[in-house]
Design brief:
The chain is mostly beta strands. The chain has one domain (4-184, 196-498, 575-622, 657-881): TonB-dependent receptor, beta-barrel domain (Maltoporin, Chain A, Beta Barrel). Strand 20 and strand 21 form a beta hairpin. Helix 6 (504-517) packs antiparallel against helix 8 (539-549). The protein starts with a strand and ends with a strand. Mean pLDDT is 87; it is low at 5-61 and 66-71. It is found in: Cell outer membrane.
């Protein structure tokens, strides 16, 4: 079925950093350093004519980026990049990166279990949400500072000049994890002219958004800016049994900057910021009520069965999302003749606490909490040249040091034992008696598991680019990056359920040997078992016992195995697994760019990229198959020789999986052409991009299976165009086509996916808009209307749903669930010459409904949950610029 409802169907510390221009990367400082002879770039209080800035006439935008260490317009830049200006963000009422995808079609953003779990995809490649040990393949930089986790990226966007989305691997230009692409957010720096703005928005669901900023001089050489934002909104999901609402907004942030610039060779920019999120998020509706639904009803639970778009939840507790992100950076640039030395030093802290009723029913069955802390230090240095001759270069370095700590756990509620006993057909008391478990011990109210994970990551890279102008129109570029990355991690977990701590095959074997020897089961030690198995007199009996032990028709205990979903955990490091990864890589870029004439530019790029190993910081972390081979149905007694078994450290019900996923290595061939004529601009990029070892992170129902896909590739094209039929009317049209395939993925969580299409990647994505600006007489006042449309073609949501029988059955059930998106947004703004604006806006005008993702319901085999899209929102904004 297509779970989409729409009103229409359609179409070594001490390294440095900088903001100087580098090939293939739009640079913040260099672009800002250019004299802005138009007020259309930022539409802010940075005046060039001494008058208050108002909304510009449509079509007057001049976007400056720097791709070859000199200022260029977007059309001249030989790289596939989309730029969203601050004006567009305001007109489209885009307040955080989650909504950015509606104006950047090669970018897709997905928010899952909590406010902190957001994943960015470029050209279909992306990962990192829900597992703090996995850094994203799409790197996010804010004013040149790398944000390593999505929880540090998603707060409301404040005072943004532009957002640049660089597509394809960028490792030769960025020091950390840019194997799929880059999102670079550039904010406005302090100004030496006093100015600022204030805005107030009110929308449905009692949405109140307040923003303000002020900037100006402190002295002739020091300027400041201070800005803040506050965003609150009622939830749009009713928790029926608690008479509460979830999926709300409650976030605020503050930012302060100082800029030293006396006109000399040294400029310094200091930034400090703090943001806070305290929200009840996120709603997961029931997509498929499986066989466990009757047990939920039996213990007094309820759920809006098979109707995720009811926006009605039944929970026994409200979800908690408490996130703090704060830090500071110091950016210094020193001009040395025709060269520039730039440094960015940054330190950031992230604190995220999440608690959720993970069975998503009103029955008090299972809840989960996660408490995460991430401390990050980065240091960059870049030396760039700006010679008059044909040769220019960049040489840089990047240092990264990060500590991650997570404590987490699952808790059984008061209804846990009745619920799981119902699933067992009432067999728990008898099973406890047979296994020697105290009556009532299984699924007793209280802790089910407790985890403690740590990760320490240190890496550095050295990179450089060289531009050689063969002629005035032909330029060759070469780049390199060497990265060395080391990770040390510890994994520890306590599993408190006594039933999960017993292997049911081994329990049967021990019981039968005890009966054959007429001894107590406690007397059947490993030595006794070995003697019984090897004694010629009892060896045939042992064979018969082991055959019966793995036969469900003979061993009734095996029926309880599905309830052993939180088994004992083998901690890391141990005698076999050191808890370390060490990676190093050389990446390269080669490009030829040719200016055909003053209106046409073409380029061809070959580039490679790299992302280091990621660590599975989840309760589904398990040894590699090369380190351990479990016996039938997880038996230790019948397990063959393996390093972990032979070391004597195996625990009952130990399975295999992965502790970490190895590096991602990307490669792209890209051919682009850019046309720029009066009233018309078009950018087209054709690409063939491959990721070897793509790090797949799949939710299994209780944890995450992290594994490397052998190879995933995508071919396609990206088209961006702008048509200005008049100065007042501007059309934009962007189209992305992606044709992805798993070239090799034999060890996915749902079996061999080799030769299949990766889920969640639409074939076609469209983002188009029309903006009309009408001057009202000769007053200087403007009326600005904007309509934009975003479309994703129908695509399967998930490759397979774990827990639905065989791998083929898991993949078959997933084929029933797809997503298509058709979203219209609109705004109308009255902008006065004195700087006052009044806007009305609506997002998701047609109240488009679709599932953003599905997953196997926690501890409810055969059921599926999913995240529905946000309903229509609308409101008014009053803004004053001064």
């Amino acid at each position: 079925m297509n779970f989409s409802r729409s009103f229409s169907r359609g179409v070594s510390a001490g390294l440095f950093a900088g903001v100087a221009a580098i090939a293939l990367m739009p640079s913040a400082a260099a672009a800002q350093a250019i004299e802005e002879d138009t007020t259309t770039l930022d539409n802010d209080a940075d005046l060039t004519d001494g008058e208050p800035d108002v909304a510009p006439a449509a079509g007057a935008d001049t976007i400056i980026v720097t791709a070859t260490k000199r200022a260029q317009t977007l059309q001249e830049t030989p790289v596939s990049v989309s730029v969203t200006t601050g004006e567009t963000l305001e007109r489209a009422e885009i307040r955080d990166l989650l909504d950015l995808q509606t104006v950047a079609p090669s970018l897709r953003v997905s928010q899952l279990q909590s406010s902190a779990n957001t994943t960015f995809f470029i050209r279909g490649f992306g990962n990192g949400a829900n597992n703090v040990g996995v850094e994203p393949s799409v790197g996010v930089f804010i004013d040149g500072v790398y944000r390593s986790r999505s929880a540090a990226q998603i707060n409301d966007l404040a005072n943004v000049a532009r957002i640049e989305v660089l597509r394809g691997p960028q490792s030769t230009l960025f020091g950390k994890n840019a194997s799929a692409g880059i999102i670079s957010v550039v904010t406005r720096e302090p100004q030496f002219d006093f100015g600022g703005s204030a805005s107030l928005s009110y929308g449905n669901y009692d949405n109140i958004v307040v923003r303000g900023d002020v900037t100006g001089p402190i002295t002739d050489s020091v300027a400041f800016s201070v800005e803040g934002n506050y965003n609150t909104r009622d939830g749009y999901v009713d928790v029926v049994n608690l008479d509460e609402k979830i999926n709300d907004r409650n976030r605020w942030g503050a930012r302060a900057q100082l800029l030293f610039d006396n006109g000399g060779p040294l400029t310094v920019r200091a930034i400090g910021d703090y943001s806070k999120i305290d929200e009840n998020c996120c709603f997961a509706g029931n997509v498929l009520a499986g066989p466990t639904f009757a047990a939920t009803r039996a213990v007094g639970g309820n759920v809006a069965a098979n109707d995720p778009f009811s926006y009605e939840a039944y929970l026994n507790r409200l979800p908690v999302n408490d996130i703090e992100s704060y830090g500071g950076s110091l950016q210094a640039e020193y001009e040395i003749g025709a060269m520039s030395l730039t440094s960015i030093t940054a330190y950031r802290e992230l604190r995220a606490f999440n608690q959720q009723d993970v069975d998503f029913t009103s029955a008090d069955i299972v809840s989960e909490f996660r408490d995460q802390a991430v401390d990050t230090f980065t240091q960059e240095l870049r030396l760039t040249s700006d010679f008059d001759g044909p040769l220019n270069f960049l040489l840089g370095g990047f240092y990264f040091n990060e500590d991650v700590v997570q404590t987490s756990g699952l808790d059984n509620g008061a209804a846990a034992r009745p619920f799981f006993n119902a699933l067992a057909g009432g067999a728990l008391p008898a099973a406890e008696a047979a296994l020697g478990i105290p009556q009532g011990g299984s699924f007793a109210q209280g802790p089910l598991s407790r985890e403690a994970f740590t990760l320490q990551n240190e890496s550095y890279s050295i990179f450089g680019t060289v531009d050689f102008e063969i002629t005035d129109r032909l330029t060759l570029t070469g780049g390199f990056n060497y990265t060395k990355d080391e990770k040390d991690f510890t994994l520890a977990q306590q599993s408190f359920d006594p039933l999960a701590n017993v292997n049911l095959v081994d329990a049967f074997i021990v019981g039968q040997i005890a009966r054959a020897l007429n001894v107590a089961p406690g007397a059947v030690t490993p030595a006794v078992i070995n003697g019984f198995a090897t004694n010629p007199a009892t060896r045939p009996i042992f064979g018969a016992i082991t055959g019966a032990a793995v036969n469900p028709a003979v061993n009734p205990l095996l029926a309880l195995q599905p309830l052993q979903f939180i088994p004992p955990f083998l901690g890391v490091p141990n005698a076999v697994e050191p808890g370390k990864t060490e990676d190093d890589d050389w990446s390269y870029t080669g490009r030829i760019a040719y200016e055909v004439n003053d209106n046409i530019n073409a380029y061809f790029t070959y580039a490679t990229g790299f992302k280091a190993s990621s660590v599975n910081l989840s309760r589904d972390s398990r040894p590699l198959a090369s380190d351990y081979t479990p016996g039938p149905r997880g038996s230790l007694i019948l397990a063959p020789s393996s390093p972990i078994r032979d070391a004597g450290i195996a625990v009952p019900n130990l399975g295999t999986g992965s502790r970490f996923a190895g590096p991602e290595e990307s490669e792209v061939y890209e051919l682009g052409i850019k046309l720029d004529y009066p009233g018309f601009a078009l950018n087209l990029a054709l690409f063939d991009q491959t990721l070897d070892g793509f790090q797949s992170n799949v939710f299994t129902g209780t944890g995450f299976a992290l594994a490397n896909a052998g190879q995933q590739s995508t071919r396609g094209f990206e088209l961006d165009s702008t048509i200005s039929s008049t100065d007042a009317l501007v059309f934009t049209f962007a189209l992305t086509h992606l044709d992805p395939i798993y070239d090799s993925f034999t060890n996915s969580a749902v079996g061999d996916l080799t030769g299949t299409r990766p889920a969640g990647i639409p074939s076609f994505t469209i983002a188009t808009s029309a903006t009309y600006t009408q001057e009202l007489g000769s007053s200087g006042n403007l009326l600005i209307g904007r309509v934009d449309y975003y479309h994703e073609s129908d695509t399967q949501l998930l490759e397979g749903v774990p827990g639905f029988g065989t791998f083929e059955q898991q993949r078959a059930i997933a084929r029933n669930y797809t997503r298509e998106v058709n979203q219209v947004n609109a705004s109308l703004t009255f902008a006065m010459e004195n700087g006052f604006e009044l806007s009305g806006y609506v997002r998701n005008l047609g109240n488009e409904q679709y599932l953003t993702q599905i997953f196997p319901s926690t501890a409810q085999a055969g059921s599926i949950s999913g995240y529905p899209s946000q309903p229509r929102t609308y409101g008014v904004t009053a803004r004053m610029r001064f």
